[in-house]
Amino acid sequence: MESLHPFFTKVFLTSLNYGIQDILLTFYSQSRRKNSFTQHIIKEETHKKWFKKNLTNLKSNIFILENERAEPVGTIRSDEIDSNSYLLSWNISPSHRRKGYGSLILNRFLQTRGGLFTAEIKPENLASIKMVEKNGFKKVNEQTYIKKL
Questions:
Q1: pLDDT higher than 90, residue 15
Q2: CA–CA distances in Å: residue 102 to residues 10, 26, 40
Q3: pLDDT, average across residues 8-18
Q4: 55 CB burial (10 A radius; 0-12, 13-18, 19+)
Q5: Which helix (H) or strand (E) covers residue 140, if one does?
Q6: Topology of domain 6-148, per CATH?
Q7: How many beta carbons lie within 10 A of that of residue 73, not counting itself?
Q8: Rg of the chain over CA atoms, in angstroms?
């Protein structure tokens, strides 16, 4: 793993909890949907159902990245595909993009995990491609990147 800039030493991942539900909806609502495989706008009621389901889903883990001021700046999600194989996705708050948080959240998430990790990324999403490559993922086809730990 790369060494982290001292600025990021107080940044940490927090487990998903109900207190973060509205923040997640705000992130997704403000997101550049063009980079997401889910293009439609997410309605609040749909989000609440999804959130409740994911709090109890043992095959899905969502973490919040908070900056040094304890402000949520992004999320990373891991869905178990099968034993020891996971599909990753992430979202960084629009106001915190292009500041290194995407690479940081991925780096911090992978530090204590093992398995085969997959990221599905649209070819035009250059920021995410750069981020996964920086974190050691290898391209296997036009939109799939993998890393084995």
A1: no
A2: 16, 17, 23
A3: 49
A4: middle
A5: strand 138-141
A6: Aminopeptidase (3.40.630)
A7: 22
A8: 15
Can you read off the two tokens belonging to residue 76?
A: 């990373």
pLDDT at 21 over 70: no
Residue 6 per-residue DSSP state: G
CB atoms within 10 A of CB 81: 14
What does the alpha-carbon distance between residue 72 and residue 66 come to, in Å, rounded to a whole number?
A: 4
- Show me where the domains of the chain are located: 6-148
Amino acid identity of residue 79, one-letter, is: D
Write out pLDDT tens, residues 68-124. 787 888 888 899 999 999 999 998 888 888 889 999 999 989 998 999 999 999 999
Q: How many other CB atoms sit within 10 Å of the CB of residue 113?
A: 11
